[in-house]
Automatic annotation (TrEMBL):
Cofactor note: Binds 1 Mg(2+) ion per subunit.
InterPro entries named in the record: Adenylosuccin_syn_GTP-bd, Adenylosuccin_syn_Lys_AS, Adenylosuccinate_synth_dom1, Adenylosuccinate_synth_dom2, Adenylosuccinate_synth_dom3, Adenylosuccinate_synthetase, P-loop_NTPase
Chain's role: Plays an important role in the de novo pathway of purine nucleotide biosynthesis. Catalyzes the first committed step in the biosynthesis of AMP from IMP.
Protein name: Adenylosuccinate synthetase
Annotated binding of IMP, by residue: 16-19, 41-44, 132, 146, 227, 242, 306
Binding site for substrate: 302-308
Binding residues for GTP: 15-21, 43-45, 308, 334-336, 416-418
Similarity comment: family membership: Belongs to the adenylosuccinate synthetase family.
E.C. no: 6.3.4.4
Organism taxonomic ancestry: Bacteria, Pseudomonadati, Pseudomonadota, Gammaproteobacteria, Enterobacterales
Pathway(s) the chain acts in: Purine metabolism; AMP biosynthesis via de novo pathway; AMP from IMP: step 1/2
Gene name tied to this protein: purA
Origin species: Candidatus Purcelliella pentastirinorum
Length: 431
């Protein structure tokens, strides 16, 4: 029997680890790239004909014409935003309409979800989560409450009208009377859905069935995680998390792929740490080094443009992700951002007044209760930018990589040394 060639790419911090570039690099050999969870809260930047294109929903790797992008059932999909991305790509001459495949089971993100997300965040003031304001939380709430609209509902417009009326009543009541905001128009949503559904309907296919055949036929497929595992609704720094399972479980339930058909899981980890939005961040930097890393790493969100919070690499948080996500290897990204530093710190433990330190982090508790214990590594102070060969890395940079492997107990299989697709060192390619 042929073995499947499915690999999973997961961010193993708080998102923005550079997964998009890694998936893009791996896509040249792939046939399918599959999004499994999240929605247009994610973002990845493509450079095409010297133009910067930011995509939020359509999977990475689509600049390779060999790639068939798939959006699985775990994704909450805004039809309006999807259409915008399709048009954006078509304007650049990139054909996507005939390639993109959508699961009929994707939940829809509609205008009232966005309004509710924004209303709640404003209402919460300094207790807010710092969401992306894209309606992701409310859309997942509707899914769990068993009242959400899905792509499949577009095939039964009469039924959809009834469901939409019911749900909009609930939202408009809250928006108007509790949050004192304008209500959302039923006609606007319905007209949008009628116009868009004709385009979307042609893309709908039984994704799980397709993936079963793909796995049997040994076609190289990349399952692309969105956000990072520390933002997982169950395992992340709750309540400062996103509303989906960003861990390996989200890949399985978000597509229907069999766990037995996953050959390799790549964890993508930035050489330092960033986070957008609120929530605990034990190694956060508030000094010149933090400003330097933010500037050198261009740490501004691709979805909201927000300045990211920056800190040292937290190996305690990362180490916890290895076992439960079945990681096979790690890709470290943005190594070059550390090039000019005289010394580099890595967090190897937390000093804590309680023996529940890791649970405290998972409970969104305040960082001042967790004091990071750092190991100091000498910086290499030479450029690694664009390095493609391990032998060309400065010795101190190589020592740094080997030390990370020692502490984490897992091999670093790839090192990304710059923003461009080919700026990557392959240490082990085991798939
Ligand atoms: P939501 O996913 O918009 O509900 O936001 C919840 C939290 O997840 C906020 O702190 C966001 O900043 C964060 N978040 C959501 N998507 C991403 C992402 O793609 N990268 C990094 N952080 C994200």
């Amino acid at each position: 029997m042929k073995m499947s060639r499915n690999i999973v790419v997961l961010g193993i911090q708080w998102g923005d680890e550079g997964k998009g570039k890694v998936v893009d690099f791996l896509s040249k050999k792939a046939k399918y790239v599959v999004r499994c969870q999240g929605g247009n809260n994610a973002g990845h930047t493509l450079i095409y004909n010297d133009k910067r294109i930011v995509l939020h929903l359509i999977p990475s790797g689509i600049l390779h014409s060999n790639i068939i992008p798939i959006i699985g059932n775990g994704v909450v999909l805004s039809p309006v935003e999807l259409l915008k991305e399709i048009f954006l790509l078509e304007k650049e001459g990139i054909n996507i309409r005939n390639r993109l495949i959508l699961s009929p089971l994707c939940q829809l993100v509609l205008e009232y979800h966005v309004e509710m997300d924004i209303a709640r965040e404003e209402f919460l003031g300094n207790k807010s989560i710092g969401t992306t304001g894209r309606g992701i939380g409310p859309a997942y709430e509707d899914k769990v409450a068993r009242r959400g609209l899905r792509i499949i509902d577009l095939f039964d417009m009469d039924g959809l009208c009834l469901k939409l009326k019911d749900i909009l009543n609930i939202y408009n009541f809250q928006l108007k009377f509790f949050y004192k905001r304008k209500s959302v128009s039923y006609d606007l949503i319905l007209n949008n859905l009628i116009n868009i559904s004709e385009i979307i309907k042609d893309m709908v296919l039984d994704v799980t069935n397709l993936l079963r055949k793909v796995s049997k036929n040994n076609l190289f497929t990349i399952f692309e995680g969105a956000q990072g595992v520390l933002l997982d609704i169950d395992y992340g720094t709750y309540p400062y998390v996103t509303s989906s399972n960003t861990t390996i479980g989200g890949i399985i339930t978000g597509t229907g792929i069999s766990i037995r058909d996953i050959k390799y899981v790549l964890g993508v980890m930035k050489a330092y740490t960033t986070r957008v939005g609120f929530g605990p961040f034990p190694t956060e930097l508030f000094d010149e080094t933090g400003e330097y890393l933010c500037h050198a790493g261009n740490e501004y969100g691709s979805t909201t443009g927000r300045k990211r919070r920056v800190g040292w690499l937290d190996l305690v948080a990362v180490k916890k992700t290895i076992y439960s996500n079945s990681l096979s290897g790690i890709c470290i990204t943005k190594l070059d951002v550390l090039d000019k530093l005289k010394e580099i710190k890595i967090c190897i433990d937390y000093r804590c007044t309680s023996n529940l330190s890791s649970y405290m982090l998972q409970s969104g508790m305040l960082p001042d209760k967790l004091e990071p214990v750092y190991e100091i590594i000498p910086g290499w102070q030479k450029s690694t930018c664009g390095t493609k060969c391990l032998n060309d890395l400065p010795l101190l940079a190589l020592n740094y990589i080997r030390r990370l492997e020692d502490i984490l107990g897992i091999s670093i299989d790839f090192i990304s040394t710059g923003p461009n697709r080919e700026e990557i060192i392959i240490l082990n390619e085991r798939f």
